Predict the structure.
Amino acid sequence: WSLTVEMTFYLLALPIFWIIRWRTLAIIFLPVLLLSTGMLLVLWVDGMAPLGFMGSFPFLFGITFFGRCSEFFVGVALAMWFRSNNKERVGQRFTYSGVLISILVLVAQALIGGGFYATTGVILNNVILPIGIALFFYGSLTEKTVMSRVLSSVPMQFLGRTSYAF
């Protein structure tokens, strides 16, 4: 399922980047526009489209680019933030804040349940978790921590490269 979401992003990436470069605030408005478009499609189709096209809100939020675009835009925002603030620092603020947010989201998901059938699950998974992951990535790129040393070690780099083979 994720290949469809990823390929849609790759097809739309260039126009998205042009729009964001033209108007920086588009990084906020584009995901809202895409999500609204997806929601309108679900309401318009009303479960009657062939092959389940936009057949339900769990489908929208679980396996379509419209429902998951916030994850990509958080990544784009991370790249923009890193580009403007890429000074290496000693600290653990971003790395461990990201880890903490990610763990709290996973615990909340487990306690609440419902996944993409619950509004809370969608918000946690599609908005809050990507922010936690982005903070972790930013910290891993800019802070000297035990975790950054482990992740940059030769065995971890090997595992990261070979994961593409799977």
About this structure: The mean pLDDT is 87. The radius of gyration is 18 Å. The first helix runs from residue 2 to 22.
